[in-house]
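Internal tracking record. Fields below are filled automatically when a chain is submitted to the structure queue. Please do not edit lines marked as system-generated. If the sequence contains nonstandard residues, flag them in the REMARKS field before resubmitting.
Queue: standard
Priority: normal
Entity type: single polypeptide chain
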Amino acid sequence: MYLWRSSQDPVDLAFTDRYGGVSAAPYDELNLGTNTADTPSQVAQNLELVTTDFAPGAALAVPMRQVHGAEVAYVERRDSPSDRELQCDGQVTDQTDLVLVVRVADCVPVLLADPATGVIGVAHAGRSGLVAGVVPATVARMRESGAADITAWLGPHICGACYEVPAAMQEEVVALVPESRATTSWGTPALDIGAGVRAQLEGLGVTVVEVATCTRESPDLYSYRRDGAAAGRFAGLIRRRPRE
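SYSTEM-GENERATED OUTPUT FOLLOWS
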């Protein structure tokens, strides 16, 4: 169920894998993506399985409808499970027992927290989000909410050796984020989105922890570049526990 799970009191964090769920092939097993052709009831059951194990009794934040932009929303406990999705690629809260979720297949899932103040956040950073600045926007929103000493955890994503792009696209991105320049293992132009996100965070004084696994290379994770429409989505999760 988890590729990685940790805690920095009072903050719990995790990145899921693809095991321990109910989805059938080709999404087997723990697909958390609502924008796939998987059965919606199975995706919902998978999400319930994960959140019940990760944070028993906690509430889910209104889900993000991720659009590869830089919009960041502050979220509170929702009144009803029927609340609509929020069109954004970042979320921030200082509420306790509210689980923030970011879903990915190759993009960089970013979990952020200032444990001292209890402000937490998530961001969905692909190529477009890197260029748009979704991660700096999330950090800014956290600081507006009182965060000071922020740590960011970069989850599994496609690596620079696997993320081939046209040379012109590479130059467009590198012009804005030079650290994202990469070359594939077969010698063609590529982008390292993780390196670009890390550079943005470090430039803002954020401590970065990498949970580095390449999605395209790992059979334990979903990868759109590898599997196309047959790719499910795994997730990064974060919540602030009430202090005892």
